[in-house]
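Re-running the complex after MR caught last week's input typo. The corrected sequence lines follow. Everything else is unchanged.
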Amino acid sequence: AQKITQTQPGMFVQEKEAVTLDCTYDTSDPSYGLFWYKQPSSGEMIFLIYQGSYDQQNATEGRYSLNFQKARKSANLVISASQLGDSAMYFCAMDSSASKIIFGSGTRLSIRP
Amino acid sequence: NAGVTQTPKFRVLKTGQSMTLLCAQDMNHEYMYWYRQDPGMGLRLIHYSVGEGTTAKGEVPDGYNVSRLKKQNFLLGLESAAPSQTSVYFCASSYYRLAGGRGEQFFGPGTRLTVL
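Corrected-run output:
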């Protein structure tokens, strides 16, 4: 069965520090995609970054990077130089050939000034 | 481009009433989805569609029906609302990547539904 696990319900980080949000997944499909989304307190869902299972390099998008360790089935999000505006819920999601997309339970990130 | 829009934004129903939530996208995406998000939780997939005229069940389909008669629209119906269906409902759409697999999802702003 497919599964996404985010083990950090909440995190506090000092502004300008880097932060890593954990995500592990389980699937038997050889082809899948991994996504991270941000949900601010205003409620909208914002796409951050994508990693394909066959991608050789870790994905990067500005201050966001994805630490993809395929053998460990982990896809951790790294935010460099955190900002106050990064305070939000962060969700990891997986999409596979089975067509059903699943989301993790999320991590609430709070940035301290 | 408006992206993904949802109507209504808020709704209060009494137990047993019915309603339809409308989702529209103007990006010509093939895939569309309906999710519910309960307080402090992630998104759970209700139903989805891989193309016009097709629908399929997600993780929590009971009590909901959907239709996709036009590519740009995806309707979610509640035939007889129950308090357990109080939630925030998100619609999303996505596309097929040229390299294979589906691209990221574009989400609507959500509909906050309360069933009394």
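None of the earlier attempt is carried over here. Residues 68 and 74 of chain B are 5 Å apart (CA to CA). Chain B is about 0% helix and 50% strand.
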